Amino acid sequence: MPTLKPKLAMYWAASCGGCEIALANINEALLEVDAHFDFMFCPCLLDTKRADIEALPDKAIFLTLFNGALRTEENLEMAELLRRKSQLFVAFGACAASGGIPALANQHGIGHVLETVFRTSASADNPQELIPGATSPVPGGELELPAFLQRVLAVHEAVTVDYTMPGCPPEPEQIVAVIRHIASGKPLLGCTARAVCD
Ligand code: SF4
């Protein structure tokens, strides 16, 4: 039987995964999340796919927590899709809010970023020196990545963001407070469009 609870989605774009860990770290308060929301989409934590979202009517999701910056065309498409399907869209964490660490790559060209990540960094373990090439300007690659945007974007540069939760990642108490407040049906006090909630 379909649940009547409001739908909750969480998505990671150019992200380290720390924002999902922060959500998991709210521990027993996850039971409150489950009590109030149908947590129906989170590719990092749940077995869910993009098609699950595409099948929904517009605005069918009550709340989307979107973490990570926009590095690739796929990141951008997911931000646009989730924005369209969501009533409330929250930029969750520093990378979504401002570009964060991924946006440091904006100081360099895409070719230099790939060369550093796959070949010259101390942590590169790539004896064949393969570089994703199908969609990058670096020739000779055999792997594939989604096409890169010309620069890393904060999420609000691409879609309308209703609220921003700062932090790298947001603190568990902060996450619980915002989720309880939203679940209570009250407006987020002092928050207007693209407000910072803390
Ligand atoms: Fe990771 Fe921090 Fe970015 Fe979240 S805000 S994805 S924890 S780097």
Secondary structure layout:
Elements: E1 7-12, H1 18-24, H2 30-36, E2 38-41, H3 50-54, E3 61-67, E4 70-72, H4 73-85, E5 86-92, H5 94-98, H6 110-120, E6 148-153, E7 163-165, H7 172-183, E8 195-196
Parallel strand pairs: 1-2, 1-3, 3-5, 5-7, 7-8
Antiparallel strand pairs: 4-6
Bound molecules: iron/sulfur cluster.
Iron/sulfur cluster (SF4) binds at residues 15-16, 18-19, 67-68, 93-95, 100-101, 168-169.
Description:
The chain is α/β, with parallel strands linked by helices and 198 residues long. It folds into two domains: 7-100 and 154-196, Rossmann fold; 105-149, no CATH class. Helix content is 30%, strand content 19%. It contains seven helices and eight strands, in the order E-H-H-E-H-E-E-H-E-H-H-E-E-H-E. It has helices at residues 18-24, 30-36, 50-54, 73-85, 94-98, 110-120, 172-183; strands at residues 7-12, 38-41, 61-67, 70-72, 86-92, 148-153, 163-165, 195-196. A six-stranded parallel sheet has the order 2-1-3-5-7-8, sandwiched between helices. The termini are far apart. Mean pLDDT is 87; it is low at 190-198. Bound molecules: iron/sulfur cluster (SF4).
